[in-house]
Amino acid sequence: MPRDNTASKHIAVLAFPFATHAAPLLSLIRRLSAAAPVAKFSFFSTAQSNSMISNENERCEAIKHYNVADGTPENYVFSGNPGEPVENFIKATPGNFKTAMAEVLKDTGKGFSCIITDAFFWFAADMVAELHVPWVAVWTAGPLPVLLHIETDLIREKLGIEELGFNGLEGKTVDFFPGISAIPAIHLQPELTPKEIKEDMQKMLYKMGLMLPLATALVINAFEEMDTSVTKALKSRIEKVLNIGPLVLTLPDQVNSDSYNCLEWLTNQKQDSVVYISFGSVVTPPPHELAALAEALEAYDCPFIWSFRGNPDEKLPKGFLERTKEKGKVVPWAPQLQILQHSSTGAFITHSGWNSFLESVVAGVPMICRAFFGDQILNRWAIENIWEVGVGIEGGKISKDGTMKALQLVLSSQQGKNMRQRLDALKKNAFEAVRPHGSSTANFTTLVEIVTQ
After folding, report:
1. At CA 366, angle to CA 364 and CA 367, rounded to 5?
2. Which residues are catalytic?
3. Is this structure's pTM higher than 0.85?
4. Per-residue model confidence as pLDDT tens digits over 278-296
5. Positions of E strands within 194-303
6. Spatial separation of the C-alpha atoms in residues 106 and 205, rounded to whole Å
7. Dist. CA 17–CA 53, nearest whole Å
C-alpha cells in the first residue's frame, strides 16, 4: 500500500456540488493550504462539480480532488426539474462520501486529522465523533439565516407552524431573540415554514440546524461588525463562530476576464448612472418578468449592463435589443465585481444572493432586489430594513411600474443618496475586517490553528 508522509495533517473537505457552494469552499481551501504547509487536503465533490471548479493553472499539490457519486439512478432521464439532481445527490449522502473517503484512506494510508464540510452536511457530526477529530462547518451565506436554522424548532413552536402552516404566518413576527430586529414571519427562508418538514432539502437543513452546535467551528462568509447581535447569538450556541469575510476581499482567485468589453463601455458613461443586472447562476426570472424589466429599462432610458442567461433574442421583447443598443449592453457573462466597483455603476438589480450582496457592499452600490428562493428572501428583507442599502421591488416580483419606481428611488432620490452613505460605512468596516489586525484576519488565524492542531 502506498504511503504519503509528506504532510503531517490530512484534511477531508466535503463540498455541496450545487449553486455557489463548491467554488468558494475550494477558494477557501487554497487560502488555508497557503497558510498551513503542514497540511494536505482531499477535496470531495461530484465529477461534474470538480470539473467545473478545478483550474489547471491554479492547481496546488497539497489539494487533490476526488469524485463522489452524484446519486443519479441508472437509466435516469432528466425531467427538466432543476431540483431533481439535488434530490438525487442528497439521497446518496452520506454513503457516497464515506465510500470515497475510505478509498482515499486505503490508497494513502493516511487517516484524516480534520473534516471541513459545507455546513449543509449535518452527518459530519457523526463522522468526527467516530474519528475523534475536529469538524469545521463552512456556511457560505449570511449569519442571520444560519441562526434561524439552528433555532428551527423554537421558531416553528412559537409561530404555530405545524398547526397553521405558511398561510398562518401573515402578521406574525420572529421577535424573541434578544437584540435582533423583529423579522416578519413571511420573510423567513421557506425551508423553515412548511407545515411538515418532509422534502429532502428541508430535512437536510433541519438536521443541519440540530447538528451545527456540535461543530468545532462554524466559518461564515461575513464580518463581525456587520451584525454584532446575530454574531453574539451564534457564539452562545456554537463553540467557535469565525466570520472570515468578505471572502471576495481575501480569496485571490477572482476571475478578471472581460471578453465583452463591459469595463471599457462603462468608462463612457456618467458617474452613478449605469444599472447592472444579474440574477445569479441558477435562476432566470419567468418570461413575463423579463419582459417587464426590459420595458422598464427602456422607458426609464438609463444605461444598463445585463448579464443574461440564455438567448436574449428569444427571451426579451421583440426589437428591445435593437432599440436599446446605444444605451444598453446585454452579455452572456460579465465581470460582476469589477462592474460594481466602477464609478459609473449606480444600481444593482439582483436576486439578493449573499455573494452578490457582499460584492455590492464592497463596491458601495445600492441594490434593487427580486428574491426567488432560500435565504434570498430573508436577505432582501434585511437589505431593505436592517442595513437600508437597497429596496425590494414592489409586490416582490418584477413589474414595469415597480421597477421604474425602484430605479427612481435608488438613482435619483435622497433615499438613494442615504443608501450610498450607509454602504460607505459598511464598506469601510468590511475592508477594516480583512486588514492585518482586523476581526476576519484574526478569525482566519484561529481557523488555521484548528485545522493544524
Report:
1. 130
2. 21, 118
3. yes
4. 999 888 999 999 999 999 9
5. 217-220, 241-243, 274-278
6. 31
7. 10
